[in-house]
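ok posting inputs for the zinc ion job
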Amino acid sequence: MTTQIVCKLCGQPKARAVNRPQIVGKGDAMVIVPNVPMMSCSNCGHDYFSLAVARQLDQIRAKPEACTTRKSFAVAELV
Ligand SMILES: [Zn+2]
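and the output
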């Protein structure tokens, strides 16, 4: 059984902790953070993360070179 957490947004006990990829920045400075811990709510459909995680993402956005490694991967775009 998965632990249900009360959603901060809708107040229903329908949120759970998940890891999702998050994209920070854009263009040449775009960084993909593959495993970002966040809450996902099946009631209101929102994903949101803690202030501590948001701060770390801000740091990555501010100084992408300091905290990233280069990997090559395929990118798909919807047409
Ligand atoms: Zn919710």
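notes: Residues 7, 9-10, 12, 14-15, 41, 43-44, 46 surround zinc ion (CB under 6 Å). The mean pLDDT is 91.
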